[in-house]
Amino acid sequence: QVQLVESGGGLVQAGGSLRLSCAASTRSSINYVMGWFRQAPGKEREFVAAISSSLLNTNYADSVKGRFTISRGSAKNTVYLQMNSLKPDDTAVYYCAAANRLIPVVGPKEYDYWGQGTQVTVSS
Fold first, then answer.
1. What confidence score (pLDDT) does residue 9 get?
2. What would the pLDDT profile of 67-79 be if each residue is shown by its tens digit?
3. Which of 87, 70, 88, 86 shows the shortest CA–CA distance to 33?
4. Do the beta carbons of residue 29 and residue 11 sit within 8 Å?
5. How far apart are CA 84 and CA 75, in angstroms?
6. DSSP string across 18-50
7. What are the φ and ψ backbone dihedral angles of 110, each rounded to 5 degrees?
8. How many C-beta atoms surround the C-beta of residue 48 within 10 A?
9. 42: CB partners within 8 A, 6+ apart
10. 10 Å Cβ neighbour count for 67?
């Protein structure tokens, strides 16, 4: 069992930046793909970014490419999402997730563990 705890959400003006963090409870998570998803009110949960355990592979949604960067800490059981040039459309609850996969998959059903989420609100 892997427990994931997100932090770093908040309120920011359009054009600003936020950095989300996700800490995994067990060392076994270092072998997992780690990803970020988001869900806005009335919308389905959508993929944002993911990174492989090897750090060699990343994947981004088209809507965040060039603005968001996913990374892992040196111990690999922490994952970060640096969000720059934020837009009001980025407003959502952001979820950290872990998948027992080799490549950074994009489907929510492919992820085995989920955090509770952290709210990100971007004002115009």
1. 95
2. 999 999 877 789 9
3. 70
4. no
5. 24
6. EEEEEEESSGGGGGSEEEEEEE-TTS--EEEEE
7. -85, -5
8. 25
9. none
10. 15
Hey, what are 98's tokens? 């872990």
Q: What is the DSSP letter of 105?
A: -
Give the number of residues written for the chain: 124
| Predicted confidence (pLDDT) per residue in 59-103, tens digit | 999 999 999 999 998 777 899 999 999 999 999 999 999 999 999
CA distances 4 to 73, 92, 118, 123, Å, are: 14, 18, 12, 27
User: Would you say 37 and 104 are in contact if contact means Cβ atoms under 8 Å apart?
Assistant: no
Asked if residue 55 has pLDDT above 90, the reply is: no
Cα-Cα-Cα-Cα torsion 102, 113, 80, 46, nearest 10 degrees, comes to 90
